[in-house]
Amino acid sequence: MKSLYPHPLFWAGLFSCVALAITALNLGPMISIIGWRAAFSAPSPNDSLAVLVHYSLLPRLAMACVCGFALGLSGMLLQHVLRNPLASPSTLGVEAGAQLALAMAMLWFPALLGWSRDATTALGGFAALALVFAAAWRLKFQPVAIILSGLVIGLYCTAIVTLLTLMNDHYLSGLFIWGGGSLNQNDWRQVQGLFPKVVACSFLAFMLARQLSVLTLGDTAQSLGIKLQFTRVCVLFVAVALTAFTVSAVGVIGFLGLAAPAIARALGARRIKSRMMVSPLIGSLLLVIIDQVLQIYAAKTSVHLPTGAITALIGVPVLLIVILRRGRSMLTAAEGKVAITASRLPMRVIASIALLLLVVASIAVFVGRDVGGAWISQSGATLGSLLPWRGPRLVAAMSAGLMLALAGSLLQRLTGNSMASPEVLGVSAATAFGQLCVLFLVAEPTYGHRVFGGFSGAAIVLTVLFAMSRKVHSGNQFLIIGVSLGALLSALISVILASGDPRALSLISWMAGSTYGISRQIAWISLAFAVSGLAAVTLFLRPLQQFSLGDISAHSHGVDVAKFRVMILGFAALLTAIATLVVGPLSFVGLMAPHMAQRLGLTRGLAHLLGSALLGALLMAIADFIGRTIYFPWQLPTGLVATLLGGPVFALLLIRTGRRSMQH
């Protein structure tokens, strides 16, 4: 049957015409003044306009083409080999690893930046890849294992960068500009250095086209002579190399890795060779269009914005429109679920976690450090004077961890996607953006103002999500919309932070998950919501169980699929919003706690939800105690410490599970 939609190359041609028109509008007047020969040959140093065009604007145009091509191809390879529409270069933590390497070099090894900034950031990206491979090796490089490992390592690297920024803000404040992605060029050297690397990686990718075309057959592909693990490793290496080289040259422009292949597939590029051609072309043209528009805007207003951050602002609406119109064609099933043995005594495991939580909470209350920094057990009048400070922050941290864990568990069980977490909905980013708006709109904002701003941001995103939920047909589509909205709001925050405004930089501490100023009232309100959420989640046990069998089966058993999906997603978003107001937008616990519960054998219904909630509270209680005491007399944000603490624990559980599955 002939497709009713134009050929993908038609859309690529349309994008090309738009990019050419905008480029002509921006560069045409200047080139007409200096002439074509002066523009493309070494100009006289006395001709400032010719120098600007030849050494800055034209290299910037070439860099946009090369970077967009590389990121579009990288995202397409990752989405295909992992068979998940949420896969992107940032999924493997490559961008975060590169940013961490740059921060460490700026602080302790500045000579490396003078030697080769590209090599430094590329080394960080490949180091993140090596850690992902080491964690996923025991699980035979299954797609879900790779994604989970990448998320853990990415979050871990981001947490370390945030910690370094908090402790050395006078050195690393400029890191936000690089993190926003900048295509500014001073000559042709960066383009000449990046271009052959992208060409070589692209050649290797096209050489693997045959293997990629049969990779979707799974184990059947082995009978055709395809080595699954080796092919996946090769493709992932090429994809990460493309991302690392690009990030080392221009910074983080990660949204293209998600948007370009998704748009290409939704526009009709279904076969692997077609997607390999259209995805990088769409990425290249999209980045050129955005960058040329930014140059025109800067010429009119003298305001220079980071291209990488603005890419999300412009690209997200395009992606959302494509999802709503052609969303089903974007979705592919995730494979490679990890085999986990259910515990025969789940209540004993839950009781053990609860007992451990009680012990940790007691230590957090009674143990501290004296004026000299020595560890002591405090009681009596001393404890009475400290309890009004320790009690509320501990209660708030535990409540936030419980709510984030419940939200993550609900999302993962509802969608069947192991990548689902509270931050996927974009509610955490919306809360942070709402708080940021309050800082600019209110001269002296109080905690009440920030609460209002955070809830307002979360409410707006929830309204948008619910409005779009009528047009989506699966949980994965809903997650993609949430990822897009989160990228949009994170890009807005990056743009504001890149401006260097002190009001924006003052929000960094809260975004890291600080519980410094939690009052008794806020703590009790958080606890009330956490307990109510734990009780209310039992109402969703039956629908969640039916959803695991498919929408048709759930409907045949009397479950209103659309109604309960909206209710569960809304409930998870509400829990996330309340927790985010307490410990900031770092939702690491929402991803980690449900997986930890599963790997402890709590895999079914109520046991999994209770175990996840208790583990979330336990993780945040430990993080709060460590953050309060480990760097005495200074304190570290609880959310940040939870990220640093949870990463290794989750990695050990993942590797341990992999060993058991191989033995059986």
Short description:
The chain has 28 helices and 2 strands.
Order of helices and strands: HHHHHHHHHHHHHHHEEHHHHHHHHHHHHH
Beta percentage is under 5%
Helix content: over 70%
| Strands, count | 2
* Largest sheet, spatial ordering of strands: 1-2
Q: How many angstroms separate the termini? A: 47 Å
Low-confidence stretches: 326-338
Query: Radius of gyration, rounded?
Result: 25 Å
Category by helix and strand content: mainly alpha
Biggest β-sheet description:
2 strands, antiparallel
Give the overall form: globular
Please count the helical segments: 28
Outline the structure in words.
This protein has about 675 residues and is mostly helical. It contains 28 helices and two strands. The protein has a two-stranded antiparallel ribbon. A hairpin with a 5-residue loop joins strand 1 (about 365-370) and strand 2 (about 375). The longest helix is centred in the middle third of the chain and has 36 residues, at about 380-415. The radius of gyration is 25 Å and the shape is globular.
Protein topology:
Layout: H1 8-34, H2 36-40, H3 48-82, H4 94-108, H5 110-136, H6 143-167, H7 169-172, H8 175-179, H9 189-207, H10 209-215, H11 228-250, H12 255-266, H13 272-301, H14 307-326, H15 346-366, E1 367-369, E2 375-377, H16 380-415, H17 427-441, H18 447-469, H19 475-498, H20 502-505, H21 508-511, H22 520-536, H23 541-547, H24 551-556, H25 561-583, H26 588-599, H27 605-629, H28 638-663
Antiparallel strand pairs: 1-2
Helix pairs in contact: 1-3, 1-13, 3-9, 3-11, 3-12, 3-13, 4-5, 4-6, 5-6, 5-11, 6-28, 9-11, 12-13, 12-14, 13-14, 14-19, 15-16, 15-27, 16-22, 16-25, 16-26, 16-27, 17-18, 17-19, 17-25, 18-19, 18-25, 22-25, 26-27, 26-28, 27-28
